[in-house]
Amino acid sequence: MDKLNFLFNYLKYKMFAKNEHGIHSPFVFELYCSVFKETIPYYIFRDIESIRSKLLLSNLEIEVTDYGAGSNRLNSSKRKVNKIAKYSLKPQKYAQLLFRLVNRFKPQLIVEFGTCLGITTMYLASSNSKSRVITVEGCTNLSKIAKINFDKLGIKNIELINKQFNDFLIQNLSVLDNVDFVYFDGNHTEEATIKYFNECLSKIENHSVFVFDDIYWSRGMTKAWNTIKNHERVTTTIDLFSIGIVFFNPDLSKENFVLKF
Question: Does pTM top 0.90 for this prediction?
Answer without folding.
Answer: yes
